[in-house]
Design brief:
The complex is a heterodimer of chains A (about 230) and B (about 375).
Chain A (H helix, E strand, L loop, with lengths): L6 H34 L5 H13 L2 H12 L4 H10 L7 H26 L2 H9 L4 H30 L2 H7 L9 H10 L4 H33 L2
Helix pairs in contact in A: 1-5, 1-7, 2-5, 3-8, 5-7, 5-8, 6-7, 7-10, 9-10
Chain B lengths: L1 E9 L2 E9 L4 E5 L6 H9 L6 E6 L2 E5 L4 E2 L7 E4 L11 H10 L9 H7 L15 H14 L4 E5 L7 H17 L4 E5 L2 H7 L2 E6 L2 E7 H4 L3 H7 L5 E11 L6 E5 L2 E5 L9 E7 L4 E3 L10 E13 L3 E7 L4 E7 H7 L6 E6 L5 E4 L5
Parallel strand pairs in B: 3-9, 3-10, 7-8, 8-9
Antiparallel strand pairs in B: 1-2, 1-4, 4-5, 5-6, 10-11, 12-13, 12-15, 13-14, 15-21, 16-20, 17-18, 17-20, 18-19
Helix pairs in contact in B: 2-4, 4-5
């Protein structure tokens, strides 16, 4: 691939993959928790939480990026604290880019997990309970394995979506080559550059291929696991 | 001793169940659907909270709302066999069996090999759960529950959802569990034939209440049982001692009270006890000693009670020497024979109308 990609372009590709991977790792645990709470718990404010989780789907990405800047910026309430206590900077860094894409793909992840959690029969967890399995044990040995198709599909979908996130990333962490210039940002930059059309076309083809393979892969995972479970 | 006294209100339904049954042994929780059996199972297993009550197994307290004791289900050591098996689809048969075994919290009284042998699971071990038939899945579910080394095996209608021939296949396995392992069992059912074959103690549930309980012989004459199983299934259940099997006729002789019965019971061993059901509708009552008949069984006794039953018939209770049996005959026959308490009577029953079942050792 590097044969016909320029150094900058292949760096953008590598960066995109890194950012998307981190983004999935960041969002997976909280998405699991939120999906579990939304599926299994009845509490006041549940509908509100549900709506809140889905906000990134309907808000302009630029606005999400701006919000992140306010909250996680060096002088923001959370960003300032992270900086002081742990020396972690998010603005203008690839970790910041991962956070922005994690927030944007969070609803996709939660949706996939909720769907799969709903297919896990409570009766099986009850059976495990009567066989001596405590709560954590049940989660690890029954619930999570049975959720695996949805979990994997959700992760792969979120990964693919993270590869393509533009608005929130450019607003929150800007467009720095080698640090935050992911594929879509590189594509945008190429379009703004005179004679950049060939580069733009190459980047577009890569994005297209990655997106499509991601979706196919997630479908394949889901089917494999279903076959394994005999459904 | 397995002691339960629990109450629970669920909408308009009110469960108020109280019973005690000896351990080891098989207590049948018997009632129509909707009588609260499933609710009771879930409360005993700890999957549903009771409003108030106590549950003890051999002195170990699992629930006492007054003292604030509530052992969580994973520490109750109650092996539950659910109506719908509930095998784990992501594990194979061996994985399912080992799930409970690995988490057993008590000294082992049964090993994996014993369970596999007892339930005939050898050829199934590598199978995925969706490759099992209904009866096989039930056997795996029973094995899985047993291997958790429970202090009580709770079977919630284990034969429901199986066709007649599969039921016939599974029942002997359940009998073996009862006779070869000393684990107390609670057997929930709405089918009296299953109760007849397996139970040592019977608890009747009706509209959420335990209306009667006792050993099977006593309970077989109970009017509340009659109301639930219907007139045709009513009949005394008696435990008799096998005297031997006649080589020529193939009929087994069983001592019952001062009398004896002849019936077909292949494999019955002399000296063992056999449980025999004498259906009330199959019995013929005579007031003089009958002669020259094809009927193999003539039992001599004394009328103890005459009670009007539904549909123009009477239920006659007859003492055949320390053992009570009941016969259903028409009002007209009662009048003609002038049957009344104290009157001598002969009871006739065909050998082919009798069914014998090996009696649980614990009786």
């Amino acid at each position: 691939m590097t044969m016909w990609l320029s150094a900058d372009e292949s760096r953008a590709l590598q960066l995109s993959l890194t950012v998307a991977l981190r983004s999935v790792l960041f969002s997976l645990p909280p998405a699991l928790l939120v999906a579990w709470v939304l599926t299994r718990r009845r509490f006041p404010g549940r509908t509100l939480l549900d709506a809140f989780v889905h906000l990134p789907l309907v808000l302009p990405p630029v606005m999400v990026g701006y919000l992140l800047l306010l909250l996680l910026g060096n002088r923001g309430p959370i960003g300032g604290w992270l900086q002081r206590e742990f020396g972690i900077a998010l603005v203008f860094t690839r970790n910041g880019a991962a956070v922005a894409t994690a927030v944007m793909s969070f609803p996709l992840m939660v949706r996939a997990m909720r769907l799969s959690l709903e297919t896990v029969e409570r009766g099986l967890e009850e059976a495990a309970c009567t066989l001596g399995a405590g709560a954590i044990d049940r989660l690890a040995t029954i619930t999570l394995p049975l959720m695996m198709p949805g979990l994997l599909a959700g992760a792969v979908t979120a990964f693919s979506a993270a590869l393509g996130e533009f608005g929130a990333v450019i607003t929150f962490v800007s467009n720095i080559p080698g640090e935050t210039r992911t594929l879509p940002l590189a594509l945008y930059t190429a379009l703004q550059t005179p004679d950049g059309e060939a580069a733009a076309a190459r980047l577009a083809i890569i994005s297209f291929t990655l997106g499509l393979s991601g979706l196919l892969l997630s479908e394949w995972f889901a089917r494999r696991v279903r076959v394994l479970l005999g459904r | 001793m397995f002691e339960v006294a629990v109450s629970k209100r669920r909408g308009t339904f009110h469960l108020d169940a109280r019973f005690e049954s000896p351990t080891p042994g098989v207590v049948a929780l018997f009632g129509r659907s909707g009588s609260g059996k499933s609710t009771l199972v879930h409360i005993v297993a700890g999957l549903l909270d009771a409003d108030a009550g106590r549950i003890l197994i051999d002195g170990r307290c699992l629930l006492d709302t007054e003292k604030g004791v509530k052992v969580p289900p994973q520490r109750r050591r109650i092996g539950v066999v659910f109506q719908d098996s509930r095998l784990f689809p992501h594990l194979d048969v061996s994985g399912n069996l080992n799930y409970g075994r690995k988490r057993a919290k008590a000294p082992f009284f049964v090993t994996l090999d014993e369970v596999v042998d007892l339930l005939g699971l050898t050829s199934l071990m590598e199978r995925r759960t969706h490759q099992l038939s209904g009866g096989e899945a039930k056997r795996v579910a029973i094995g899985r529950a047993l291997l958790s080394q429970p202090s009580l095996l709770l079977l919630d209608e284990p034969l429901s959802g199986l066709d007649a021939s599969r039921r016939g296949e599974l029942l002997p396995y359940l009998e073996r569990l009862r006779d070869e392992l000393a684990v107390p069992m609670a057997y929930v059912s709405h089918d009296f034939d299953e109760v007849l074959r397996l139970a040592t103690h019977l608890v009747l549930l009706d509209r959420g209440r335990t209306v009667a309980q006792g050993d099977l012989t006593t309970m077989s004459l109970n009017p509340d049982l009659r109301a639930i199983i219907g007139a045709d299934a009513v009949g005394a259940i008696v435990d008799g001692v096998v005297l031997g099997t006649d080589a020529q006729s193939g009929l087994t002789r069983v001592a019952v009270g001062r009398n004896h019965l002849e019936l077909e019971s292949p494999g019955a061993v002399a000296g063992s006890t056999l449980r025999v059901q004498l259906l009330a509708r199959d019995l013929i009552v005579a007031t003089s000693a009958p002669r020259d008949m094809s009927v193999r069984n003539v039992l001599e006794g004394t009328v103890r009670d005459v009670a009007a039953d539904s549909g123009g018939s009477d239920l006659i209770t007859i003492d055949i020497g320390g053992t009570l049996i009941i016969a259903r005959i028409t009002h007209a026959a009662t009048r003609e024979l002038q049957l009344a308490p104290g009157r001598g009577a002969w009871v006739l029953v065909k050998a082919v109308s009798l069914r014998g079942y090996a009696t649980p050792k614990t009786v």
